[in-house]
Design brief:
By secondary structure, the protein is mainly beta. The chain has a single domain, classed as L,D-transpeptidase catalytic domain-like, CATH 2.40.440. 8% of the residues lie in helices and 28% in strands. It is built from one helix and seven strands. The strands form two sheets. The chain has a five-stranded mixed sheet, covered by helices on one side. The protein has a two-stranded antiparallel sheet with strand order 2-3. The longest helix has 10 residues. The two termini are 16 Å apart.
C-alpha cells in the first residue's frame, strides 16, 4: 500500500485465483465496500437438475472462509479478504479474490476506506 506521495506504507503477501481465467485484469480498481467480520454465503456450483439451490452461510469469525475483513472491489464478485488458513498464502487457490492472512486483512482494513485505489500489475 502506498500513500499519496507514492511512499510504501505496507506490503502484504497474498494469494490469487487458481483458475487463470478468474484472475482480475491488470489495471486500476477501487474498494467499494469495507466490512469487518463478514459472514460468507456459499452457493454450490453444481445443483442437480430439478433441485433447489442450497446455500450455506458461514457465520462471521476467525474461521470464516473470508476471514476477519472483506474489502469489496468495483469488479463484481471480487475482493480482498482474510483467510483462516495463513499457511495457504503464497499459493493459488481462491476463486478470484486476493487472500491475505487474517492479521494482514485486519491491518489493511484499518488503512482503507471506500474509494481507495487498487492497482493490479502484471
Amino acid at each position: 500500500m502506498y500513500d499519496a506521495e507514492s511512499k510504501l506504507l505496507a506490503f502484504f503477501p497474498c494469494s490469487i485465483a487458481a483458475d487463470k481465467a478468474k484472475v482480475p485484469p491488470h489495471g486500476e480498481l477501487k474498494i467499494t465496500t469495507c466490512i469487518p467480520w463478514p459472514n460468507f454465503t456459499y452457493t454450490p456450483d453444481f445443483t442437480p437438475q430439478g433441485k433447489k439451490v442450497q446455500r450455506h452461510i458461514w457465520p462471521e469469525g476467525e474461521n470464516c472462509p473470508v476471514g476477519v475483513a472483506w474489502l469489496g472491489l468495483n469488479l463484481p464478485g471480487y475482493g480482498i479478504h482474510g483467510t483462516p488458513r495463513p499457511e495457504s498464502i503464497g499459493f493459488t487457490g481462491s476463486h478470484g479474490c486476493f487472500r491475505l492472512a487474517n492479521w494482514n486483512a485486519a491491518r489493511l482494513y484499518a488503512m482503507c476506506r471506500s474509494g481507495t485505489k487498487v492497482v493490479i500489475e502484471p
